[in-house]
Structure formats: C-alpha cells, structure tokens
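Figure 3 (text version): structure tokens given as input.
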C-alpha cells in the first residue's frame, strides 16, 4: 500500500506533471463544485465530476494528452478504443483542438452512446469487443494517428489528477478521498497529487465486489487479472476493466492507502440517495465512494467522494430509484 509521502522515484507521473496539466486544461475543463452532502451520516463532501461537459472526469486526461502532442503530430489526429466516457472525452477534446478523432467502439454498444460520440465530431469504427485494441492499433498505423488509451498513459493520469488539486484547495483537513477504481487512471493521478500536497489525507479506492481486481492486485503485490465474465456482472460498468494498467499499478502501490469494496445493492442505493437527496444524477461507477461512506461513515472522517461520472442508462436509474433512501 501507500509508501510515498512526496511521490516516489521512478514513477511515470510526478506531482509537477499534474500541476502542469492543470495549466494546459484550464479554459477547457470545468472546475467542478465540491458540494456538502449534509444528509449523509458523518461528514461527506461530493466532487461532482458528473457536471463536466461530457458528464465525466475523463475529459481532464483527454484534453491534457492531446494538448501535449506536438503540432505536427496532433494534426494527424488521435484514436482510442472505448465504449463510454473515455471515447466521448477524446472526441470532445479533439473537436476543441480542431483535430480528427477515431473512436473504436464495440459491436453491441448502445445506439445512444454511438450517436453521442458521432455528434461530438468523431469517426466511429465498430469492432468486436475482444478486438477493439487491435483495431485501434491498425487505425493508428495506417493513418499515422496517436493512440490515447483510457488510463494506461502518463498524460491521461496527470490530467485526471488535477481534480485532486481542486479538492485540496477547496476544503481543509480532509481525512479521506474516496475514489472509484476501474483501470486505475483516476486514482493514480489523485494519489500522486495527494501524496505531494497532503500527508494527512488518505486515498482510498472503491471497487464493486464483482470487479475487485485492483484490491486483489494491491494485496498480492502484482497485477491480478479477473475473468471478464465476472467483472461484466457489476452494474458499475465503468469499473469492469479486468486488470489495472501497467503504469497505474506502481503508482497505486506507492500512493493509495487502501481499496474497499461495495455490493451491488449498496451501489444502487447510493445512486438513489444522490438523486433524491443531492439532486445529482450519477452513474453507478460514480457512486462507489458514496456507497463506501454510507456503509461505514465513522471509518472515513471528513471525507470527499469523487462522483466520477453521470452518464447513466435511464433504465438503471429507474431501477436505483426503487431503493429506499
């Protein structure tokens, strides 16, 4: 678990990278509000990344990664593979930079997500889910585009970490930052920033019980891959990544204090509480931190939960609202 108080040598991203990313993305990415959840037990604050222009924190990393490209490289365009928030983030950032973007999406992706990505100006290429990365690699090679991966990329990690800078400026004496964990891009960036700026603040990741590969990885000291058939069962679709990224894992080992898990009903109850009590529409992955806090508020003290996204399927929201609050 956490070994770094000032970052750690040899990691792919430094606190300086996060600070530099903040300057690059200013004017493109919203400084999202930090909102009190006065209805929750204990003391809980909400970092509402669901209010970004594409409804998710992913915009931070995408904007930073594209801004870091040399002008001649950027002009050839960017490509990524994604079925959700990262694809829309890259499409949005590419349009803002005036460069072409290709998003490789899995066959079977919802028509709403496909159309939303096209509306952002990107070219969408459909591929079998198991071949998305290979197809993206082919596009990169044939067109000379730059690949912007969803999480396993230094500039993406640095961009995601900028939200932690905002949190630490907006609230003093934070005991715990509760961060959803999928591939590890968000928690890696947050961990780097917090390790440098606030030794008192714990960084705790939150995963669904059905997709707890990051918790297993930190416990065993190496990356552990879960069966995709298992991770596909969680309602928190943004965390279904079966293994954390190669760059992300050593950062997590150095800067993350713990990873906890929550059950499916706890996740849906958190979605319902956010909708009914805070008037915030949050996707299941984005509600993980709130679910963890509600399960054990005394453990986290003065806590901030990162609401990582708000792009929820209406049917899932309807299902969540059936839970009592």
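Below: residues designed for each position.
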């Amino acid at each position: 678990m956490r070994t770094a108080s000032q970052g750690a040598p040899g990691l792919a991203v430094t606190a300086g990278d996060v600070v530099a990313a903040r300057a690059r993305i200013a004017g493109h990415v919203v400084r999202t509000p930090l909102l009190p959840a006065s209805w929750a037990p204990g003391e809980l604050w909400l970092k509402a990344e669901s209010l970004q222009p594409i409804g998710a924190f992913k915009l931070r990393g995408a904007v930073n990664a594209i801004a870091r490209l040399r002008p001649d490289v950027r002009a050839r365009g960017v490509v990524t593979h994604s079925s959700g928030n990262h694809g829309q983030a890259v499409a949005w950032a590419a349009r803002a930079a005036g460069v072409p973007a290709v998003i490789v999406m899995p066959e079977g992706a919802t028509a709403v997500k496909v159309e939303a990505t096209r509306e952002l100006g990107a070219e969408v290429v459909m591929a079998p889910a198991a071949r998305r990365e290979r197809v993206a690699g082919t596009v990169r090679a044939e067109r000379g585009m730059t690949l912007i991966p969803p999480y396993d990329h230094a500039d993406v990690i640095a961009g995601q970490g900028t939200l932690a800078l905002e949190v630490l400026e907006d609230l003093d004496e934070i005991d715990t930052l509760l961060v959803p964990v999928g591939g590890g891009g968000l928690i890696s960036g947050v961990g780097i920033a917090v390790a440098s700026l606030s030794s008192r603040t714990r960084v705790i990741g939150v995963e669904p019980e059905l997709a707890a590969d990051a918790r297993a990885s930190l416990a065993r000291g190496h990356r552990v891959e879960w069966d995709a058939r298992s991770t596909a069962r969680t309602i928190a679709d943004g965390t279904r990544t079966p293994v954390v990224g190669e760059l992300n894992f050593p950062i997590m080992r150095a800067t993350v204090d713990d990873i906890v898990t929550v059950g499916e009903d706890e996740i849906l109850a958190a979605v319902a509480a956010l909708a009914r009590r805070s008037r915030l529409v949050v996707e299941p992955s984005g509600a993980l931190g709130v679910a963890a806090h509600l399960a054990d508020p005394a453990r986290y003290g003065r806590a901030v939960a990162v609401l990582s996204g708000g792009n929820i399927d209406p049917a899932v929201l309807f299902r969540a609202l059936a839970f009592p609050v």
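The radius of gyration is 18 Å.
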